[in-house]
Amino acid sequence: SLNTLEGKMYFSDGDYLIKNQTGECYVCDKDIFEQTYKEVK
User: Fold this and answer.
1) In terms of Cα–Cα distance, which of 22, 31, 27, 23 is closest to 9?
2) In whole angstroms, what is the distance from residue 31 CA to residue 3 CA?
3) Which DSSP string corresponds to 1-41?
4) For residue 15, which phi and psi values (nearest 5 degrees)?
5) Predicted model pTM
6) Sign for the pseudo-dihedral over CA of 26, 19, 13, 39
7) Chain CA centroid to CA 7, Å
8) With left for phi above 0 and alpha for psi between -120 and 50, is residue 28 left, alpha or beta?
9) In Å, how far from its chain's centre is CA 24?
């Protein structure tokens, strides 16, 4: 689990942990992350 400003968030194997510009971390489901973001090479 991960403590955030919104409370405790739970994550599963394969989920992405994202840190924003202010340093806050949050959890993003693997499927949602891969549909939303593209790899930069």
Assistant:
1) 27
2) 22
3) -EEETTEEE---TTPEEEE-TTS-EEEE-HHHHHHH-----
4) -70, 160
5) 0.70
6) positive
7) 14
8) beta
9) 10
